[in-house]
Design goal:
Helix content is 20%, strand content 23%. It is an alpha+beta fold. It has a 6-stranded antiparallel β-sheet, with helices on one face. Helix 3 crosses helix 4. It is globular.
Length: 224
Amino acid sequence: MTLTRTTPALAGAYATSLAGRSRDELPVPWTADPGIDDCARFCSHVIWGGKPGPISWVDNFKSAGDGSYAAGAGDLQPWDVILFDWEGNGVGNHVEFMVADLGNGYVRTFGANGSDTRAAAYRLRPKSYILGRFRPAWVTAATPLNHVTPTAPRRFRMFTIVPVTSNPKEPAKAAYVCGMRGKRAPIKSPYHRELLTRYRDNGGADTMLTAEMDIVAGYLKRVN
């Protein structure tokens, strides 16, 4: 196989462009089958292209070409493919892309067919379940997590995120981002809300893509 997206930045930008899409609402680029678990198909489609993605079983990432596999969680970089072993038997059960090590025993990931939702989305996962990682043979090397340039310091007072509901007895279905001068703007999607939360709470370990920062900047321009 030959890498379709040859750098971590290209892979990350393409993967996150699919946020919110799910095999429950076909068509999606990585599979045509609504009945087959597609976490591996999603990740392999992002890396190599194809429909369906060329890898259908998690453990096949251990021997995939155009990259290298390493067991354990000691060497993780952004946009590695992380294999998770939920049962502790040495067999991979799930894969997602590595986004950031949060330094508290958890990693932020991005992938599809998670236990909470089948849609492509960001998630938090315990590092203790990581079986290993597959690192594509990128054209340029990924930046090590402990050498990232902080995207922004923590700025909790820049804006707040306020859930909105017409019935206080029901969960909020919408939210606004509110600036410190009272200006507000509706948050267009759960994906955008996740980006705003990541930016607000970012201490430097959570690297964000330029395309993600552009989305955040658009909201900040409207409320400040």
